[in-house]
Amino acid sequence: MRNWPAIQSVNVLFLISAVLVVIVGAALQIWSLLWGLVATEVLLILLPALIFLWRSRLPPRETLRLRWPGARLAGLSLLIGAGIWLVAAWLDSVMGLLLGYSIGAPADFFPTTSGSAALLFFALAVLAPLCEETLFRGVVQRGYERQGPWAGILMGGLLFAFFHMRFQGLLGVLPIALALGYVVWRSDSLWSGILLHFANNALAAGLLVAMSLRPDVSIGVPSLPAAIVGAVLAFAGLWLFRRGPAPAPPPAVSEPKPVSWLRQSWPLVIAGLIYTLLATAEFVVGRFPQVMALDDLQLQATSWERPARWQYELRNLLDEPVGRAECRLTPEAATLVLECKMSQAAFEAKTQSSYFNMGEIEWQQTARWDRETLALLSAERSQRSGEEHLSFTLARDGDALRWVMEQEGQNRSELTLPASALLSAEWPWRLSAMPFSVAFASRATVGWAAFWEGPVNAENWEGPVAQSTVVVVRGAEPISTPAGNFVAWRVTVGERLTAWYAVNAPHTLLRYEDGMVTYELINAE
């Protein structure tokens, strides 16, 4: 009679490890993402499982199924893991589209050196399979196999999927979770699960490294064609896996004393509540980030000590070049002076959902910011579109900003803005001084020189207009511009404006989309 783990005991172990990962693991990864991942896997996932085996006096070799499955099943495990990853990556992207958000990543998640890339690969592709398979297929699944092999596969897989504490990514984790349980049971070897898990995570880590170092190269994953190929590979691998020798009949296992359902399941109830809270928070923050915007946007002193110059190429929605822009920043004793000029050719752009008809535009603008607070002090702008000439001036008026627009020196419009307002043609550069962190959100007011409602064309605008909106840091991502490859913070202002900033100070503006054209950095000095 063998003494396998009791279901009540593995439920408690699952809860302990989950709480450690949520609390201690999160703190470790805030301190250092990559080394925090290493510590989380070893200290918070593997170590509790090993302590459990020791305290329960369970033989590790027999309990964990530490026997080699043979070269054939090992190779099939790698094939299945690679195929399922292609499917899971596509499912993740589909869920992101359906839910309307994706989980933002911190800047450290994207390696920019060979050392950080190697550490990321080691943590995700080597440590994670070893540590997580020991806990879930080695201990948790073994405990639930008291109720039969399929109960062990199902419950071990479900607990593994929910252990990741993701809502948007839950669907993508389920296929691999169930496949892991099946190959471990069928081969009677934990190494089958470790190899499958390795193949899955190695492809994910490899793609992440490739995207980080060469975002200019399109890989074609995730995509539906890649998911179809992955599904074929995974099903073929599982079919061949099943044609191998049948697993030995389960040995007789000593029965623990009967316990009530509540006593056996209370750890899962608590873990379920934790998952529900975290999943709800993820959905709300991802889908409705404005609820996090409790305060007005506050900028901070920057590291600009010397003059800077940035040149941009303008491209329309069809990715056609339509103009150039250049900005110069000059530090002064108490202010920062931004001088920008832009020249854009007329263009028409038709997409499946939009039609843009823009005339030729030229403008130049000067803005002055307080050097310590980055508050806007004054601005002047001159704009010409065809035969029409517009001019704008903005100046401090007590605790507010007074914005005046004149058309051909006659038609005059005025607008009062709060002192913290952002101006449509200067804020993309001023937000280089915002505090960047994932899911950061603040309220802001944007002053528009020209604002469109409905189809965008020269006859359908009004200005100046003040609009209350929310500034959100969506997360970091690799991007490519004519100036090079970067890891950048993606920031949205309302629903139609997006800007990308270099993750390293002084957080140069790398790309800016205003809903009509995209500014791409081509040179920085």
Biggest sheet character: 15 strands, mixed
Mean pLDDT: 90
What is the H/E string? HHHHHHHHHHEEEEEEEEEEEHEEEEEEEE
How many structurally independent domains? 2
Explain this structure.
Strand 18 (509-513) and strand 19 (518-524) form a beta hairpin. The strands form three sheets. Strands 10-9-8-7-6-3-2-1-19-18-17-16-15-12-11 form a 15-stranded mixed beta sheet. With 525 residues, the protein is an alpha+beta fold. 39% of the residues are buried. 42% of the residues lie in helices and 27% in strands. It folds into two domains: 7-62 and 70-249 and 260-287, no CATH class; 308-524, YmcC-like fold. It has helices at 7-31, 33-55, 60-64, 71-99, 114-144, 149-163, 170-187, 190-213, 224-242, 261-287, 427-430, and strands at residues 308-315, 321-331, 335-344, 347-350, 355-358, 361-370, 376-385, 388-397, 400-407, 411-418, 422-423, 441-448, 451-452, 461-462, 465-481, 484-493, 497-502, 509-513, 518-524.
Task: State the gist of this model.
The protein is α+β, with helices and mostly antiparallel strands. It has 11 helices and 19 strands.
Strand and helix map with partners:
Blueprint: H1 7-31, H2 33-55, H3 60-64, H4 71-99, H5 114-144, H6 149-163, H7 170-187, H8 190-213, H9 224-242, H10 261-287, E1 308-315, E2 321-331, E3 335-344, E4 347-350, E5 355-358, E6 361-370, E7 376-385, E8 388-397, E9 400-407, E10 411-418, E11 422-423, H11 427-430, E12 441-448, E13 451-452, E14 461-462, E15 465-481, E16 484-493, E17 497-502, E18 509-513, E19 518-524
Parallel strand pairs: 11-12
Antiparallel strand pairs: 1-2, 1-19, 2-3, 3-6, 4-5, 6-7, 7-8, 8-9, 9-10, 12-15, 13-14, 15-16, 16-17, 17-18, 18-19
Helix pairs in contact: 1-2, 1-5, 1-10, 2-5, 4-7, 4-8, 4-9, 5-6, 5-8, 6-7, 7-8
